[in-house]
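Materials and Methods. Structural model of DUF3489 domain-containing protein. The 112-residue sequence of DUF3489 domain-containing protein from Tsuneonella litorea was retrieved and submitted for structure prediction as follows.
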Amino acid sequence: MTSTTKAKRNRRMAREPKAEAASNANNAAAQPEPAQEQANADASKKPNKTEAVLALLKRTQGTTLDELVEATGWLPHTTRAALTGLKKKGHSIERTKVDGVSRYALAELASQ
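The predicted structure was written out as tokens:
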């Protein structure tokens, strides 16, 4: 029987860490509080595609599926799934047909 208590050898890294990473680790204590980071992230956050969809739905005439697909770059079935996701988040989306084309709008705005 052989002994299982051999001395462990030091592991080598595939590549040496960059000097920047080491200096960033030292500066970690100087970083702002997490609450401040969240506030800064919200302020500098760029608009996402869901916000673009909501902007189109808020228009007085609403929007068509083709307009949504063009604005987001999504496929039609993905765009419809996004509308379903917005419904699950509490937005009430109304669908109407105008000249055989479905138009989508937020129900609160469509009723005004």
